[in-house]
Amino acid sequence: MYELTKDSRLRKNKEYRLVYRYGKSYVNRYVVLYVMARSSKQCTRMGFVTGKKIGCAVERNRCRRLMKEVYRLHRQELGSGFDLVLIGRSPLKNINFAQAEYYILKVLRIAGILSKKR
């Protein structure tokens, strides 16, 4: 069963702030990705964020579930040694999984995080 372990996710506010401050951002209409490089020997850690502008809690949770599922299906393709924060934007709540997958993978490719082409 899939589990996002403590080692593979950002957990503390301090970790998120470091990525926001020193990381590079990549944007499309549906998501924003912040990337901060770490040592290549360390595993990639991921954080998922949705703001209140998206809507009620149900819509925010759905957006986070979409982002987490795309990450779960493609985490073997991600390079190691990064801290990533994926922020859902408001239009993300209106698209289906296939479209969300396309746009999230697109921003990961632009950032150079995906290790193998699809």
Question: Can you give me a brief rundown of this structure?
Answer:
The protein is an alpha+beta fold. Helix content is 36%, strand content 20%.
Descriptive account of the structure:
With 118 residues, the protein is of the alpha+beta class. The protein has a single domain (26-111), classed as Ribosomal Protein S5, domain 2 (2-Layer Sandwich). It has a four-stranded mixed beta sheet with strand order 1-2-4-3, with helices on both faces. The model has no long low-confidence stretch (mean pLDDT 92). It is globular. The protein is built from three helices and four strands, in the order H-E-E-E-H-E-H.
Please give the structural blueprint.
Elements: H1 13-22, E1 24-27, E2 31-37, E3 45-50, H2 57-74, E4 82-88, H3 97-111
Parallel strand pairs: 3-4
Antiparallel strand pairs: 1-2, 2-4
EC number: 3.1.26.5
Subunit structure: Consists of a catalytic RNA component (M1 or rnpB) and a protein subunit.
Pfam family, one: Ribonuclease_P
